Amino acid sequence: MTLISQSEFAKRQGWSRQYVAKLVKSGKIRLHKGKVNPDEALKAIQAQSEPSTVLRKPASQDHLPVAPTDSRQAVDFVTARTMREAFRAKMARMEYEEKAGKLTDAAKVRDDAFRAGRMLRDALLGIPDRLADVLAAEEDSLAVRQLLENEIEQALEKLANID
Asked: What gap in Å lies between CA 88 and CA 80, rounded to an integer?
């Protein structure tokens, strides 16, 4: 069991020291007397990693900066172009769905919901003013209940009939 420092482990993996410290703090890597067992740490990280991380490019083993070449620039251009076209396709799909009535502007929905809530609130708060005299004169509790139900139903129907 060879133990190395966290910074040496980070250097060997092509990671930053902060990332390794984060892995230690989160409990993904265990320390032995303040040092890291690289084999054990890699197995622990692999066991807890997402399966999609296998599809990513591995970290380069040589830590020397790579000079850009024509083929690399062409790949970057092709990648950028692909991303741009994918973005355009998503935007076109969103525009189509909006025009087809499947998507709605969130701000419009919020405004409409606020307006409907405000109308319902005003209608319900107006019930005491409209019925106070009628209810005060009423002696039958069933009649009072029926009057209140009718007023509340009218307020809700008014809200339901709004375009």
From this structure: 12
